[in-house]
């Protein structure tokens, strides 16, 4: 692998590491707060620091870093397709096995560890993404934009056809009723997740997992749209050559700053917005901010000073699959009854500090592991299934000799 290729892969690993941390800052709240309480929008902590941090998180982080992960999923499919073509492999079969393995991991994760699993959704939508793997870049871009706009367009159209419905926010009940319901579910889940047995927790987790699956359906067009956008970027080599695509990247940053960011501020600060306005903020604003983040990251990565800082994220990013599942295991041991039982007892500010501390430990662990092995432990299992017994064999060298090879996709 030449130096430029290695640098490109390290850049993608670093971006994946950043996304992993941003996702964790959001996910940790779901380990200590009822899913229904979050759905009702109930604020459990009234301190100015906690409320301020949650406001900033809503504007800057919520919904953006999971979209970066989605973008990289599509980006990675094209990288894998190109690698398979160079080696004469059958990409369709290889990628199908990869998705089936991901689906199994996702089901085990969602049913036995944490209900908020995203792997199941990625596996399901990955089969749809596979239908686009032969498409030209222009076709990918058209489909991506159409999918990203489908939900806000439908909701805006519904509001125009029925003005009364468009004046309603997403919550169909009063704020007082929503608060009471949110507190009830938080107390119920604290008794189960925080103090219950493993079997009681598992039963509730399965219920929440099923609810979460249905809740995510409305986001499927957005996730698939970001898959396709990542595939488009990879085929067009936009991130491969950030210097050569400075104008495109500058436009992405400008769109995020002028349109996406104001929409996110409005959605976080304003109350009682019409449904279509919230939909536009959520399904248009968030992707625009996400693309601005990706563009800014690519430009900063070209700077030698920032490059050294951002490269530190490449280690946990290279082991993102392992680290994502490990985060769930660690949080289960901290917040659930079979561990410390801290469910509902950790304020948002402390949650973020805890997430930072855990991620720092994961970074140190990833550095230690990758000095000894070419890929993470769960990445190895995933590739074992994907490549049917040849997980990282390259140029006659196998993973049994980890010091012989360092590159990975």
From TrEMBL:
<keyword id="KW-0472">Membrane</keyword>
<protein>
    <recommendedName>
        <fullName>DUF418 domain-containing protein</fullName>
    </recommendedName>
</protein>
<feature type="transmembrane region" description="Helical">
    <location>
        <begin position="248"/>
        <end position="267"/>
    </location>
</feature>
<feature type="transmembrane region" description="Helical">
    <location>
        <begin position="209"/>
        <end position="233"/>
    </location>
</feature>
<keyword id="KW-0812">Transmembrane</keyword>
<feature type="transmembrane region" description="Helical">
    <location>
        <begin position="20"/>
        <end position="42"/>
    </location>
</feature>
<feature type="transmembrane region" description="Helical">
    <location>
        <begin position="54"/>
        <end position="75"/>
    </location>
</feature>
<dbReference type="Pfam" id="PF04235">
    <property type="entry name" value="DUF418"/>
</dbReference>
<feature type="domain" description="DUF418">
    <location>
        <begin position="234"/>
        <end position="388"/>
    </location>
</feature>
<keyword id="KW-1133">Transmembrane helix</keyword>
<feature type="transmembrane region" description="Helical">
    <location>
        <begin position="279"/>
        <end position="301"/>
    </location>
</feature>
<feature type="transmembrane region" description="Helical">
    <location>
        <begin position="140"/>
        <end position="161"/>
    </location>
</feature>
<feature type="transmembrane region" description="Helical">
    <location>
        <begin position="349"/>
        <end position="370"/>
    </location>
</feature>
<feature type="transmembrane region" description="Helical">
    <location>
        <begin position="321"/>
        <end position="343"/>
    </location>
</feature>
<dbReference type="InterPro" id="IPR007349">
    <property type="entry name" value="DUF418"/>
</dbReference>
<feature type="transmembrane region" description="Helical">
    <location>
        <begin position="118"/>
        <end position="133"/>
    </location>
</feature>
<dbReference type="InterPro" id="IPR052529">
    <property type="entry name" value="Bact_Transport_Assoc"/>
</dbReference>
<feature type="transmembrane region" description="Helical">
    <location>
        <begin position="95"/>
        <end position="112"/>
    </location>
</feature>
């Amino acid at each position: 692998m030449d130096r430029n290729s290695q640098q490109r892969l390290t850049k993608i690993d670093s971006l994946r590491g950043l996304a992993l941390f941003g996702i964790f800052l959001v996910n940790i709240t779901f380990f200590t707060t009822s899913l229904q309480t979050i759905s009702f929008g109930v604020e459990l902590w009234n301190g100015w620091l906690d409320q301020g941090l949650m406001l900033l998180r809503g504007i800057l982080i919520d919904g953006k870093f999971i979209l970066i992960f989605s973008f990289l999923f599509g980006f990675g499919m094209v990288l894998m397709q190109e690698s398979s073509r160079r080696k004469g492999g059958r990409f369709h079969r290889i990628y199908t096995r990869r998705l089936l393995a991901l689906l199994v991991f996702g089901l085990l994760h969602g049913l036995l560890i944490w209900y908020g699993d995203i792997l199941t959704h990625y596996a399901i939508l990955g089969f749809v993404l596979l239908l686009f793997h032969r498409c030209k870049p222009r076709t990918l871009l058209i489909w991506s934009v159409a999918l990203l706009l489908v939900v806000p367009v439908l909701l805006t159209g519904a509001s125009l056809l029925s003005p009364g419905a468009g004046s309603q926010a997403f919550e169909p009940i009063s704020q007082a009723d929503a608060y009471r319901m949110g507190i009830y579910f938080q107390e119920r889940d604290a008794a189960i997740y925080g103090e219950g047995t493993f079997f009681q927790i598992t039963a509730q987790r399965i219920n929440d997992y099923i609810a979460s699956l249905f809740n995510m359906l409305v986001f499927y067009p957005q996730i698939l749209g970001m898959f396709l956008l990542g595939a488009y970027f990879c085929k067009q080599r936009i991130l491969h050559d950030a210097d050569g695509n400075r104008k495109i990247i500058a436009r992405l940053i400008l769109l995020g700053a002028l349109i996406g960011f104001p929409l996110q501020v409005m959605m976080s600060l304003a109350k009682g917005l019409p449904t279509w306005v919230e939909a536009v903020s959520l399904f248009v604003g968030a992707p625009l901010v996400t693309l601005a983040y990706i563009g800014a990251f690519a430009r900063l990565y070209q700077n030698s000073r920032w490059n050294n800082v951002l490269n530190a994220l490449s280690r946990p990013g290279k082991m993102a699959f392992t680290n994502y599942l490990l985060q769930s295991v660690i949080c289960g041991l901290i917040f659930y009854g079979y561990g410390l039982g801290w469910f509902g007892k950790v304020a948002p500010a402390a949650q973020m500090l805890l997430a930072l501390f855990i991620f720092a430990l994961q970074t140190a662990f990833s550095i230690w592991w990758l000095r000894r092995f070419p890929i993470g432990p769960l990445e190895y299992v995933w590739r074992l299934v994907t490549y049917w017994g040849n997980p990282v064999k390259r140029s006659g060298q196998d993973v049994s000799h980890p010091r012989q090879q360092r590159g990975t996709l």
